Amino acid sequence: MTGALRKPRPRAVWVAASDHADGLDRIHDPGVAATLWRRQRDPDFAAWIDSLSPDHLPRLRQALPVTDVAAEVQAACDNSGLAASPQRDLLAADVAALALRFGTIMATPYVQLRLDVIQTNACRKFHCDRVVARLLCSYRGHGTEFGLAPGQTEVTQVRALCTGDAAIFRGTLWPGEDCGLLHRSPPIAGTGETRLLLVIDLPEEEDGDCGLPH
């Protein structure tokens, strides 16, 4: 033989779910492809955000320090014409808290942050993002769908995040292990549904292959 065969990398397939924020930290555990923080939506916040016109939902796409996230979300709300309210403050504070949690887990003081308003079948195919890791949270509309992947584009036993859940998914650039879990944006075209999706990546590592996040 002229060369040795490369040893296959271990394959991460587990989803670690928790009712507490620190459960997201398990993304570094061997074999864990995603961590999920199950969260209950505040009824007043849910009624408020679900009733908003899509035109008034905040849009944001920016690399920034985690300490500036709340102020930038408030600025995005101002730009969309969204009136000040306790619920708006809660949204900004929650996005900031998730950015801080992601930054702490991934050991970075900066993040690439997006708030996307989605009304189409963005990234409807199951896939793994070309990033190290990505945090997703749907504040309005259906949550991200995911499942184990026997192949490159197919999954078994499709599951979905609930609205308000926060999850960190490993990407193809995660060191040491391959990801055996794929995810996608739920197909909503033609239903009249509008999603407000938070996406947090490492700085300068946004995966734009899909155009919109999943």
Features:
214 residues, 3-stranded antiparallel sheet, 12 strands, alpha+beta, 7-stranded mixed sheet, 19% helix
Which structural class is indicated by helix and strand composition? alpha+beta
Strand fraction equals: 25-35%
Any low-confidence stretches, pLDDT <50, length ≥5? none
Mean pLDDT: 91
Q: C-alpha Rg, in Å? A: 17 Å
**Strand order of the biggest β-sheet:** 2-3-9-6-12-5-4
Shape: globular
**For the report, how would you describe the main beta sheet?**
7 strands, mixed
Q: Give the distance, in angstroms, between the N- and C-terminal Cα atoms.
A: 44 Å
Written as H for each helix and E for each strand, in order along the chain, the element string is: EEEHEHHEEEEEEEE
Percent helix, as a range, is: 10-25%
Q: What oligomeric state do the depicted chains represent?
A: single chain
What's the tally of helices? 3
Number of distinct beta strands: 12
